[in-house]
Design brief:
single chain, 166 residues, alpha+beta, Umud Fragment, subunit A, 2 domains
Length: 166
């Protein structure tokens, strides 16, 4: 009996250690680039990468060394310009990459160098970007706040008690 209890405690401890290690790994891998990390989430808005990705998909990119064939995100002009997600079809990071959307019949007019590439795509989640984009809207937040206020302030309905007539 004592050995079994010790074994259960050991298994529970190992489970906790594995759980914390997985959480730490997710934090490290998912730490956003806006906070000094290496991961960027981008909502696909156009049709240029179909059939690989569709509008509303969430692209996950990480810093790394891009290669021909990789799908990358880049900013063509400045840090404020919108992010473009296309596939590298040639070039290099020094002289500029040649990029093209999977659904485009033309090569991008921009040839970003290594510093303009914000990440190499490691995966995407279909349709999640469309759901997340709702939270960009101020009207969504106002609606949620009004709903929360209504739930808190709504008067409590008390059951009526029968009165005795007698």
């Amino acid at each position: 009996m004592i050995a079994q209890a010790g074994r259960r405690t050991l298994v529970r401890r190992l489970g906790q250690i594995v759980g914390w290690a997985m959480l730490a790994g997710l934090v490290v891998l998912g730490w956003p680039s806006s906070l000094g990390g290496c991961t960027t989430l981008t909502i696909v808005t156009g049709h240029s990468m179909e059939p690989t990705m569709h509008p509303g998909d969430l692209a996950i990119t990480r810093c790394g060394t891009p290669q021909v064939g990789d799908v990358v995100s880049y900013r063509p002009f400045t840090d404020k310009s919108p992010v473009v997600i296309h596939r590298i079809i040639g070039g290099d990071g020094v002289n500029g990459w040649q990029l093209q959307g999977d659904n485009n019949h033309f090569v991008d007019p921009f040839t970003p160098v290594a510093g303009q590439v914000t990440g190499v795509m490691v995966g995407y989640i279909p349709n999640l970007g469309g759901v997340l984009s709702m939270f960009r809207s101020p009207m969504m937040w106002v609606s949620l706040l009004l709903l929360a206020a209504a739930l808190v302030l709504w008067p409590e309905r008390r059951p009526s008690t029968p009165t005795s007539t007698g």
